Amino acid sequence: MNVAFVGLGVMGYRMAGHLARAGHTVTVYNRTSTKAAAWCAEYGGTCASAPAQAATGAAVVFCCVGNDDDVRAVTVGPEGAFHGMAKGAILVDHTTASAGLARELDVRARAAGFGFLDAPVSGGQAGAIAGKLTVFVGGEEATFRVVEPVVRAYGHAVTRMGAAGSGQLTKMVNQILIAGLLEGLAEGLHFAVRAGLDAKKAAEVISKGAAQSWQLENRAATMIDGKFDFGFAVDWMRKDLAICLSEARRNEASLPVTALVDQLYQRVQARGGGRWDTSSLIDLLAKP
């Protein structure tokens, strides 16, 4: 299939690579052209000078950028993908963005004769490299059926959650759960250290019981060691939590723990940890 991929960041670079390795013909666009050139040198695809050019002739256009404004720029902006897509083509947005934007783009895509899916992912850089991301999808069932086998090049769990916006709402649930879990993990490990336990041994045995989680198994050791120079950045998490809290104000959901953890991440940023992994919440406890 002829496809396009717009946005070659930490996630998009690898996701587009999996599409190429799966046998698809991939045209890429990235705001920093040297990154696109490096991708083409590695995977043998074609570089485009604008999203519209990348989208020309593509059956599916994938997008993975920073925030709502970035998505609008690369889709409906002056040189956006919508200006290059043919009727019947499909735009798949992997950006973690607002549900309102997803609904907006769905309406605009329908009016132009395109398909649209909001499809944020979970699994981080490690999942993107391994091709084992979880993909939450919102949009029409028929459109999803066309795209699902393509997305499985990098998604080991690809699930349609409902109408446009449902993928983004599910990603919000994911981030709400992780925020609360990481604070609980930070407090538990901090308590273990202060209690004189072998904290790593405690984490290992606890991971075999009801408190098991991906974060416990993959982040406990580095949290105890105070290492955070990797993973999903605090700056990105705060962007995501802002989306969650905004949506909660709209639907009147109560998120007291999420709001508290967002404030804690603000404190991590204030001590220079904006690019630290989200597990760095423990630094506030270890070094108050």
Task: Explain how this protein is built.
- With 288 residues, the protein is of the alpha/beta class.
- It folds into two domains: 2-162, NAD(P)-binding Rossmann-like Domain (Rossmann fold); 169-286, N-(1-d-carboxylethyl)-l-norvaline Dehydrogenase, domain 2, CATH 1.10.1040.10.
- The chain has 13 helices and nine strands.
- The chain has helices at 12-21, 33-43, 51-55, 68-75, 99-112, 124-130, 141-151, 166-194, 199-206, 214-225, 234-251, 256-270, 281-286; strands spanning 2-6, 25-29, 46-47, 60-63, 90-93, 115-118, 121-122, 133-138, 155-162.
- The protein has a six-stranded parallel beta sheet, with helices on both faces. A three-stranded mixed beta sheet has the order 7-8-9.
- Helix 7 links the parallel strand 8 (133-138) and strand 9 (155-162).
- The longest helix is centred in the middle third of the chain and has 29 residues, at 166-194.
- It is globular.
- The N and C termini lie far apart (54 Å).
- The model has no long low-confidence stretch (mean pLDDT 98).
